[in-house]
Amino acid sequence: MQLRDRSRGASPMIGLTPLIDVVFILLIFFMLASSFLDWKGFEMSVTVMDGQARASSDIRPATVNVDANGGLSLNGEAVAVSNLAVTILRNHAGASVHLRPVNGADLQHLIVVMDALGRGGVTDVDLIE
């Protein structure tokens, strides 16, 4: 039995070319597999209400209160987020909507409500305090 002498041969070389090929293939895979999100922003205006402000129209605005638990009330009456836009369009057509966070409402709840209003076709939404 003849064994190879380890000290006689050169150390094995590890080629970097296959590693670079694999990295490029992974890079191309992730570039093609990923999708770039379509970011849509909310257009909103902040209304600062003071005692001297007057309404520019005779239509009373609809006020939506969002509490800390995500509960909604439309002009004091409880309403579900799924029915909010329909109710506003039916009962307060043409009125602006004032969205008011109360009792430390979570920002995520506000975003859910604003998204529901936007999807439902309500466009005139103000965030008030």
TrEMBL record:
Give the record's keywords alphabetically: Cell membrane, Membrane, Protein transport, Transmembrane, Transmembrane helix, Transport
Q: Report whether Cytoplasm shows up as a keyword of the record.
A: no
Its subcellular locations are:
Cell membrane
- One Pfam family for this entry, by name? ExbD
GO term, biological process aspect, one = protein transport
Membrane-spanning regions, if any?
12-37
Membrane topology, as annotated, equals: Single-pass membrane protein; Single-pass type II membrane protein
Annotated PANTHER family: BIOPOLYMER TRANSPORT PROTEIN EXBD-RELATED, EXBD MEMBRANE COMPONENT OF PMF-DRIVEN MACROMOLECULE IMPORT SYSTEM
Q: Which organism is it from?
A: Thalassospira xiamenensis M-5 = DSM 17429
Q: Known InterPro entries for this protein? A: ExbD
Cellular component GO terms held in the UniProt record:
plasma membrane
Identify the main location.
Answer: membrane
Q: Where is the signal peptide?
A: none
Q: Name one GO molecular function term.
A: transmembrane transporter activity
This protein is called Biopolymer transport protein ExbD/TolR
Family listed? Belongs to the ExbD/TolR family.
